[in-house]
Amino acid sequence: MLKGYLKTFAGDCLGSLNASIVALPQALAFGVATGFGAGASVWGAIILTFISGILGCKIPLVSGITGPVTIVIASIMAALNANISSVILVMFMAGILQVILALTSLPVIVKYVPYPVISGFMNGVGVIIILMQLNPLIGFPVMSNTITGISSFIKNLTSVNYDAFFIGCLTLAIVFAIPKKFNKIIPGQAIALVICTLISIKTGLNVERISEISISFPELTLPKANLHDIITYFHYAVTLAIVLSSESLLTVLVADSILKTKTSSKGMLLGQGAGNIVCALTGSVPGSAATMRTVAAIHSGSSTRLTALICPFILLFLLFKLSGFVAQIPLAVLAGILIKIGYDIIDVKLLKVLKFAPKDDLYVLVLVFLLTVFYNLIVAVGAGITCAALLYAKRTADSTKIVQKSIYDKDIASLEKILEKDYKHKIRVVHIDGQFFFGSATQLVSQFEEILGTKFLILDYSSENPLDISAIFALEDIIIRLQSQKIKIILVLESCKVKKQFENLGIIKQLGEENLFETETAAIDYAKNCIQKKAKKRHFWKRISTN
Fold this sequence. Notes:
- Helix content is 68%, strand content 4%.
- By secondary structure, it is mainly alpha-helical.
- It has two domains: 2-354, no CATH class; 408-546, Transcription Regulator spoIIAA (2-Layer Sandwich), CATH 3.30.750.
- The strands form two sheets. The protein has a four-stranded parallel beta sheet with strand order 3-4-5-6, sandwiched between helices.
- The radius of gyration is 26 Å and the shape is globular.
- 43% of the residues are buried.
């Protein structure tokens, strides 16, 4: 018992250390990008992670400012003419809205957001981060939005600060060159930050630097507000609250998938909201549960909320001990780090299957992407969800037919009952009925978690409708999880169109041609033969060993 506790504690400590090393350069870079400064962002990560760790969920969530949150806060800062007190009021209201949201059933809705909407949004955020850091990369201030950023970058190309450009390009070379396996031990962003800052100091490069960072404990101050300000700024608070909450809920889905847990989204959101309220009251930058930092912690051994309580103290230690060094970090180095973060946010996985994706999904993705980059994040998500819902309704209506069922269905039902009795759940048949789309994908993945003692799983997909992108990735997730549990998967596909799609996407190759059948009876016979062969083999070797 004690050994188990010590192992868990050691895993949480190591996970906290790795998450902190990932968090520090990101917090510094994002803080500068928002206009609040590096110190406010680091303090926000410390406060939010600690409070959400106490009040939130039991899994190891590491929180702080992220890419989407940075873009929203920077946009609000520009819209309110860099009026810090007004922006703090917006952040305070956003935290309150998160707490209110946690008391409703709305957090559950995020799992039904279509994959093309999420992908379009994240791709848009990644591109915005890259475009907005082009000016700092050549030694000029960051612009408030994408269009002005692009136009000013083109003008500034005639007077590039080559010192800044050199150190920024060196940063990019380091973060892109370091292998992923090495990144799990020491994050490339931290290595680039240290090496490039030291080079800039030793060679005396003429570059803009962070200059100063606050290491004093922030003081609680109530935001000054009147009814007019609250009404005027309310829509900004709603936008920020939605982005903060969505990012956190998506991070929880990822963490639950890795840890095989089920976390209360309401409890998590309550902790995040309370943490962001305190961030606003202390003038620190709010944030959300950060996917990259949380995954880094889990892969390093973290498994409990203790990670969220240890991580802030490590960040505090780094902040106080390295404040002098942090002040010397060139803004071009932070720009290089942010460009890499923006690249990592872009959904490269989707690009691989883009040419096989249904046109409806592509329309939604492109719409969300363009609106995110050139207009407004929340309008983009709202428009994407609306479009996806309408297109799905059309797709479902077009595929609705009156089908006369034959007696074959009853025969198959009887066969499956006999199968369950004779083979004691070693062979299971699962029918994927109806349209396998984004709404059913999440539910189906959670159902497959409950399959225990199965050796052969027959997936019978009898629909004529091809899968959308969410369903494709959900099916891949199901296959990987079940294969990792030594479960052999047999696929039954009746439609040639669906079979062709599966071949194009490499799913049949992943399963093996021998595990694909056109009828359920053929698939069952194959599974039974495999079990009988294994039983005969075991019996044969048992006889030899006894003789």
